[in-house]
């Protein structure tokens, strides 16, 4: 186990020990295809920076393990872009984290990012620098259930990976996407 990964594991363990019964925290466990368990923490205390840092490392490892599957899942985005006919593709990514999905978006993608933790912003912009065919058209610090700042009919597709398990109200999130006709 690398030192960076060991540090993440220690951070997660200490957070769980400290907050397991706290009213300010919710913990959801997600098992990945490789048998690795990822713990996602949604907290309202002042530790959002260290959580963002830890989840960036976890997200990178998860992405490494899921790269083939993600390529397959996102392969239709190129066709969607071609159907537009203007060389663009407008995506809404809910829970964009550090921008791991940018590697799978076609050149010409414009991403509206919705992320409840503002501390992911630096990693997100670093990721977009590594993928020059992708640009961030907006970064909103919002909960997935409350996306009023995203205009109705403004996107071609909505992307959400490893997120809905940690959303307080997944039904409300889906309702916002469908009833407000974001797509």
Topology:
Elements: H1 3-19, E1 25-31, E2 37-43, H2 48-74, H3 77-84, E3 89-94, E4 109-114, H4 121-130, E5 134-140, E6 157-159, H5 170-179
Parallel strand pairs: 3-4, 3-6, 4-5
Antiparallel strand pairs: 1-2
What attributes does this structure have?
183 residues, Rossmann fold, 4-stranded parallel beta sheet, globular
Structure overview:
- By secondary structure, the protein is an alpha/beta fold.
- It has two domains: 3-70, no CATH class; 73-179, Vaccinia Virus protein VP39 (Rossmann fold).
- The protein contains five helices and six strands.
- It has helices at residues 3-19, 48-74, 77-84, 121-130, 170-179, and strands spanning 25-31, 37-43, 89-94, 109-114, 134-140, 157-159.
- The chain has a four-stranded parallel sheet with strand order 5-4-3-6. A two-stranded antiparallel ribbon has the order 1-2.
- Helix 4 (121-130) links the parallel strand 4 and strand 5.
- Helix 1 (3-19) packs across helix 2 (48-74).
- The longest helix has 27 residues, at 48-74.
The total beta strand count reads 6
- Supply Rg: 17 Å
Spatial order of strands in the largest sheet: 5-4-3-6
CATH superfamily of the largest domain: Vaccinia Virus protein VP39
Q: Any idea what the CATH architecture of the largest domain is?
A: 3-Layer(aba) Sandwich
